[in-house]
Amino acid sequence: MQNEPNPSPPSTPRERNVLLLDLSKSMLAPLPESEEGRPPRQKIEVARTAVFRILQDASESGSLFGLVTFTEVVRVPVPLAEIHRENLPYIENLISMLAPSGRSAIWDAIAVGADLLRSGTDGVRGNLVLVTDGWDNASQRFDVRPTPDGPLPEGRIDLVPYILPANSRLSFRLIGIGSGAERDKGVDAGSMHGLLSQMETRAQAIGLAPAFGYQEVTTGSALFAQMVHAFIDVGYDDDLPIEDLHPEELARHAASAARALKEPQQHATVGRIKAAHEAARADSADGFHESPELEIGVLGVAGGPPAYLKERYGPLGEVVEAYLQGQYDVALERLARAQAVLPRVTYHYWEARIQYARHAIVEAARSLLVAWGEAEKLPATTQAAVLRRLAMLQARMQNDKETETLVRFIDTTEHSLSSNGTHSRERVMGLFSKLLELRGTYQLTRIAGTDDLQDAALRHEAAVEEVFGLLQDARLDLASSGAAVEGALDFIEICLAEMR
Question: Which residues 6+ apart lie within 8 Å of 422 measured at CB?
Fold first, then answer.
């Protein structure tokens, strides 16, 4: 008898990205540059350049990409599909001919973008990015309620439930050009905040972890960076993809990370990470938060600097380019020139990183201390990821391999699962938060008196068992989510065993 062929494992779903681009007449207006001496460029010119870069990345990564444009009419010049390199010249020529005119049917465009991401009974799934500089003044079919319970204009369809039906996994990001305090002076910030607030409420009603963001830009370089960053993430140096680790390596890393949880005094930085995770989970249900994108990730060096570094990140890209080439004095000079346009936490993080590379340990420690203070002013929903990057740098400066391993695995996991859908990412990151909580109950077993020791040990063991139970539930629920999820769950399980 011939052996039955083994069924091929399910493939990991590819990223599904749709960009909604405003082509109203106001997109012909100029945008200033962030650096003196650089001439302003038209909004549409900057946006076209960003689309070219996004298309190039999509052709290399294999992710699916679609483009929706809108004036008073909504069009789909690039349907959602894989972008093949041989088709790039044709698509780029099509993009170059996009000409702004007329008004803005923003709500109708969002609905069309959601239709491209609609997946049968699975709802709307993928990443939707809206770039606009105006107010909705031309939609014919869809509208957003003025308040959650407010009336819709007669004959209009409520946009929010339409783009978030049951079973959806939608990430929505809004990039607003200009300041919309007055009509025709920029994006309608009030209506956009209202849309996002109603999307938050709808997401909670259908059990979807919100993944919605809003960013206003006022310069050409900021518009380019935000559009491209919406589709391109930044890797880290010394990355070890979880799914590529040999089981023995995974076990060794997990055992090292567990030591950072078991020795609070020696690994004090972990306490900050734990507090930030708890605050983020508590704050995520409190509604929408506007916060800037903070470009403070440690860029990978394998094979040289990432492509398009200066184009992608503007002044910061020039700093990091010099840093990666080992030109640390040049990097500091460029950082000083860029200080006015960088978030303070970003500036001080890179100052610390460059000074550490120069072996100026005292200066690096001072800058990192300021960065910690600036990071703690951020909203809780933004703070956790920023603090993890600061913690990795601090751990390296203190030669604390255990803390660096723990924080790196948490950070790498979130980065690896960014394309796995919100459900997988939130489930696994929730387990990491629970793992960090065990740090407290373990410490009680170390400081309890003789009479209280048994009680403290029992409470800690019960806490460990609770996390084990959650872990097993996650294994069943996420069984087909891919090697990155499986590796992260194995890592957590080994840490739990070490915490007994």
Answer: 169, 171, 208, 209, 211
Task: Judge whether 401 and 433 are in contact, CB under 8 Å.
Answer: no
Residues in the chain: 500
Q: Report d(CA 104, CA 101) in Å as an integer.
A: 9
Asked if residue 494 lies in contact with residue 257, where contact means CB atoms within 8 angstroms, the answer is no
Please state, in angstroms and rounded to a whole number, the distance separating the CA atoms of residues 35 and 33.
6
> What is the CATH architecture of 16-229?
3-Layer(aba) Sandwich (3.40)
* Dihedral sign from CA coordinates of 52, 53, 57, 58: negative
Number of Cβ within a 10 Å radius of residue 471: 18
**Exposed (0-12), middle (13-18) or buried (19+): which is 106, by Cβ within 10 Å?**
buried
Cβ(83)–Cβ(91) under 8 Å?
Answer: yes
Under 8 Å between Cβ of 430 and 492? no
Q: Give every CB contact of residue 220 below 8 A, 6+ residues apart in sequence.
A: 31, 32, 33, 34, 40, 41, 43, 46
Query: Could you give the CA distance from residue 455 to residue 130 in angstroms, rounded to a whole number?
Result: 55
Per-domain boundaries in the chain: 16-229
Please list the pLDDT of the chain residue by residue as tens digits (500 residues).
344 444 443 444 567 889 999 999 999 988 887 666 678 888 998 888 888 878 877 777 677 899 999 999 999 999 998 888 888 888 888 888 888 998 999 999 999 999 999 877 778 988 898 999 989 999 999 999 988 888 998 899 999 999 999 888 888 888 888 866 556 668 888 889 899 899 988 988 888 766 787 878 888 877 876 666 555 433 445 545 555 556 666 677 777 777 777 675 555 566 666 555 555 555 444 433 333 333 333 333 334 455 555 655 567 778 877 887 789 999 899 889 888 767 788 888 889 888 988 889 889 889 988 888 888 777 665 677 778 788 888 888 877 777 777 777 777 777 666 555 567 777 887 787 777 777 777 777 666 555 667 777 788 788 878 888 888 887 888 777 777 777 778 888 888 887 77
Residues forming a β-bridge with 69: 21, 75
